[in-house]
């Protein structure tokens, strides 16, 4: 909506200036295309590139890159979004529709390309669309634009497959520097920002000051020299078939530029990686990998460099800002020298410098560096009141982030202004959809990277509670959020903010920020051991920082998940395929699924073991307790049964996983296992059933891993000569449909919930997530009594995580909000704000009040017969204070046309 309002029409690009002749303007389409190709798609250092097969230092190929699997191929196609197709015109939707027919063909194509190291020529031809870069730039300069490659969707599927493998291998085998981010699993901008802020705060507590210098690589993707990229991959130890594929991918590329509605001629691309290809970001990162490991200035400065794709920052900490500048100047010169050898140029005009210090007497020294051409270039540090923008966050000298909040609130308000025209109190888009637009489009801008910069309202300092001085930030955020809610809800402009927060289920900014911290603290338990946040938190003891305060919100000994446990080529089918594998058909009813399950069970061999497992959770006082139960049958005879209490730090999901593992373990240990062919594990939790098949990382990872290992060992068990090795089958069993084994396992699990475990299991990831959500809801509930308006207190209205009223018709919901808040078309309201032309009385002659609808004689007379008894029994508190009452009131308003005919606004 905001983009539509900003649209300037399909006008031609403005005349361009050529750097070689700044006074002349280029306006002809062909000349513009030639200028874009020369400036954006060519590297002056191409003449210094080396041949792709040139001899040079090579590392023994020790990185894995096995054969392609069918599941990988399907995932690479089906996970793609609907993007603009390339020159072949084939879209993602077409591939998905034709997949049953083309699956084997595409698999053979991808498999052959990866094995042989070849990228088809038809996938290397691109249509280049020239798009303006965001922000206020000089549109006459070619570098104010970005060339985006429209590639074949089928070819991008192959590139996406390779990119996912490269990303996983890169992190697992430590190919890149720990602080080099971009296109890598579980490595976000916010993580890098949090790590940098942590280092700055730790330096402060050690009596040091920190300086940060940002670098920008000119051209980035478009400046990569093919020969040097290929040599880099060989030096890093990548297998030869991958190196050949990359060589085929980057060499022999061709493109046509589409500009101002005209398509240019095809021309060859001598260098660069196509912007728009899924594999380009990770290849670019591998290309500049040595930049983050340079250490001739100070080999011990392993944490001095941070980078997200081509956004690079170098930090230095010491007791003097002048010493920091000297060190940063040397590292910048070292980076320039390395870049000259690799054909990479740094844009010196875009480099920025900031000093982080709380000492008022510290000066603001600049950095002076000698360029390769002998000239000296000086970068002035940002002023004390200004900020430096890096990775979307505005850093200021004292890390107050006031400019950051101000800037992002302004951006969020632009989106809010675009949404205001979509509805008012009488008409517009459905309220729940507008609320979703707020949570999806406004709040992510407003609270961007807050888990990294938000310090909390207070902190512990020298054993006492100290304020962080964040009231100003919270006020700005609350004001912006209130504007967003007013744009979404059908309310009057004077409606109190606390009412807006309750009705939209969007609590005050402080609660929202703390909730993001809780979510981030849980996420830390899903990061790999080499992640910069994990390594920093592993340093004990350590100084206080925002990162440490955030991590302390949950228990440290809770379950940690290894996101790199399974490589992409070992992961099984996706969610939808997994459901079909376990016998679930979404179009069938529960009774039909139960009948199908019973029929499947009856067709099994009498020798097979059938194990029913279940997990349960019950409320035990103020806590919940979980338990697991299992029972096994062979030839309709029960051969074992058991249960296990799991305590109060485990969820139903984890209990189901534990039950499946214990059930399979008992089947393995059963004396009759040697006479069985197969084992069938039957459980009624669809999510756990799918996880047992897909083996994706998540809560109770150790249990799923143990189950998988146990399943493999079933074929190696001791058995009689007439039985087969067999395998372990996993089936979804419809719960509570009278299936005896499932009912018995459920009873065993419930009984286990009442027992006390011998030792308390560690908190699982699922438990951490639930506790985090509960803490966020409780925080708003605790605050509500202090901000609750009197009229809401009288009605007994309390916070709700997802108010059902949001789905009521917008024009009726507006009347409900007005009656609840007393801010609406009422006589007292109009008199309070001196509305001279307002209609103060109903057609019945009485003054308009928030509850007049309840007493209006004409309204009662107009009530349809089917609503009279229900309305007569309903009280005002019921109609305005409950969900059921609100639905009844809206039904009555719709049936009587009360506010359009009996008590109109005008």
From TrEMBL:
Pfam families: RNase_H, RVT_1. Residues 112-395 form the Reverse transcriptase domain. Residues 1-25 are annotated as: Disordered. PROSITE patterns: RNASE_H_1, RT_POL. GO terms for cellular component: mitochondrion. It comes from the Eukaryota. Coiled coil: none annotated. InterPro entries: DNA/RNA_pol_sf, RNaseH-like_sf, RNaseH_domain, RNaseH_sf, RT_dom. It is found in: Mitochondrion. Its main location: mitochondrion. CDD domains: Rnase_HI_RT_non_LTR (cd09276), RT_nLTR_like (cd01650). One of its GO terms (molecular function) is RNA-directed DNA polymerase activity. Residues 605-754 form the RNase H type-1 domain. This is Reverse transcriptase. Keywords: Mitochondrion, Nucleotidyltransferase, RNA-directed DNA polymerase, Transferase.
């Amino acid at each position: 909506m905001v983009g539509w309002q900003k649209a300037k029409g399909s006008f031609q690009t403005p005349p361009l200036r050529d750097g070689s002749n700044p006074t002349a303007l280029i306006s002809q389409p062909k000349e513009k295309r030639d200028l874009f190709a020369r400036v954006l798609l060519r590297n002056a250092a191409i003449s210094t590139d080396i041949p792709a097969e040139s001899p040079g230092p090579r590392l023994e190929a020790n990185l894995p890159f096995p054969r392609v699997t069918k599941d990988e191929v399907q995932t690479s196609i089906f996970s793609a979004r609907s993007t603009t197709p390339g020159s072949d015109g084939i879209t993602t939707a077409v591939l998905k529709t034709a997949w049953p027919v083309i699956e084997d063909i595409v698999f053979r194509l991808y498999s052959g390309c990866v094995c042989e190291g070849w990228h088809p020529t038809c996938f290397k031809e691109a249509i280049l669309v020239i798009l303006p870069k965001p922000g206020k730039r000089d549109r006459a300069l070619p570098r104010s634009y970005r060339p985006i490659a429209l590639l074949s969707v089928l070819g991008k599927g192959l590139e996406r497959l390779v990119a996912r493998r490269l990303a996983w291998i890169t992190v697992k085998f430590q190919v890149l520097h720990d602080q080099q981010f971009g296109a890598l699993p579980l490595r976000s901008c916010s993580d890098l920002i949090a790590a940098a802020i942590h280092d700055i705060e730790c330096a402060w507590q050690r009596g040091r000051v920190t300086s940060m210098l940002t670098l920008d690589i000119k051209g980035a993707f478009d400046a990569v020299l093919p020969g040097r990229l290929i040599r880099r991959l060989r030096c890093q130890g990548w297998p030869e078939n991958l190196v050949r594929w990359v060589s085929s991918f980057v060499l022999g590329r061709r493109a046509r530029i589409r500009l101002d509605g005209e398509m240019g001629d095809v021309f060859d691309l001598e260098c660069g990686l196509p912007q728009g290809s899924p594999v380009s970001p990770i290849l670019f990162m591998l290309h500049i990998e040595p930049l983050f490991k340079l250490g001739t200035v100070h080999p011990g400065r392993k944490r001095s460099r941070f980078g997200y794709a081509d956004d690079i920052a170098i930090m230095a900490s010491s007791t003097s800002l002048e010493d920091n500048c000297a060190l940063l100047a040397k590292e910048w010169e070292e980076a320039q020298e390395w870049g000259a050898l690799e054909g990479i140029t740094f844009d010196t005009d875009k480099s920025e410098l900031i000093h982080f210090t709380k000492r008022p007497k510290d000066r603001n020294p600049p950095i002076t560096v000698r360029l390769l051409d002998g000239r000296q270039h000086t970068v002035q540090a940002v002023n004390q009141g200004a900020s430096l923008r890096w990775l979307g966050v505005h850093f200021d000298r004292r890390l107050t982030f006031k400019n950051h909040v101000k800037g992002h609130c302004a951006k969020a308000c632009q989106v809010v202004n675009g949404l205001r025209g979509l509805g008012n109190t009488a008409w517009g888009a459905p309220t729940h959809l507008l609320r979703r637009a707020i949570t999806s489009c406004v709040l992510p801008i407003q609270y961007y990277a807050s888990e990294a910069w938000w310090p909390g309202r207070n902190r512990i300092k020298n054993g006492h509670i100290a304020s962080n001085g964040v009231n100003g930030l919270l006020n700005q955020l609350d004001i912006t959020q209130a504007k967003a809610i007013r744009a979404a809800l059908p309310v009057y402009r004077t409606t109190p903010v606390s009412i807006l927060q309750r009705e939209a289920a969007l609590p005050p900014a402080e609660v929202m920020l703390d909730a993001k911290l809780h979510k981030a603290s849980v996420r830390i338990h899903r990061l790999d051991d080499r992640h910069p946040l994990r390594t920093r938190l592993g340093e004990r003891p350590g100084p206080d920082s925002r990162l440490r305060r955030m991590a302390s919100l949950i228990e440290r000994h809770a379950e940690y998940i290894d996101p790199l446990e399974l490589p992409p080529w070992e992961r099984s089918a996706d969610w939808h395929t997994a459901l079909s594998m376990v016998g679930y058909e979404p179009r069938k009813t529960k009774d039909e699924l139960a009948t199908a399950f019973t029929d499947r069970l009856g067709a099994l061999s009498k020798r097979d073991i059938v194990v029913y497992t279940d997990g349960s959770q019950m409320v035990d006082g103020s806590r919940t307790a979980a338990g697991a139960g299992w029972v096994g049958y062979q030839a309709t005879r029960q051969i074992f049964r058991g249960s296990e209490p799991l305590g109060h730090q485990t969820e139903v999901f984890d209990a189901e996983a534990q039950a499946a593992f214990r059930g399979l373990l008992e089947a393995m240990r059963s004396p009759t296992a040697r006479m069985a062919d197969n084992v069938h594990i039957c459980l009624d939790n669809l999510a756990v059933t799918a996880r047992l098949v897909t083996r994706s990382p998540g809560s109770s990872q150790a249990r799923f891993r143990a189950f998988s290992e146990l399943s493999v060992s079933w074929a190696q068990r001791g058995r009689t000569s007439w039985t087969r090795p067999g395998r372990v089958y996993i089936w979804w069993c419809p719960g509570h449909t009278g299936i005896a084994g499932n009912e018995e396992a459920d009873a065993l699990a419930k009984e286990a919930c009442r027992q006390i475990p011998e030792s308390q299991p560690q908190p699982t990831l699922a438990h951490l997530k639930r506790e985090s959500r509960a803490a966020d809801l409780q925080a708003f509930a605790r605050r509500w009594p202090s901000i609750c308006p009197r009229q809401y207190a009288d009605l007994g209205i309390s916070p709700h995580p997802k108010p059902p009223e949001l789905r009521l018709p917008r024009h009726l919901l507006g009347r409900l909000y007005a009656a609840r808040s007393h801010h609406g078309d009422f006589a007292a309201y109009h008199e309070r704000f001196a509305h001279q032309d307002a209609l103060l009385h109903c057609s019945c002659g009485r003054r308009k009040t928030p509850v007049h609808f309840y007493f209006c004689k004409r309204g009662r007379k107009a009530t349809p017969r089917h609503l009279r008894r229900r309305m007569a029994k309903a009280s005002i508190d019921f109609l305005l204070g409950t969900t059921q009452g609100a639905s009844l009131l809206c039904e009555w308003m719709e049936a009587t046309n009360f506010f359009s005919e009996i008590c109109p606004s005008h």
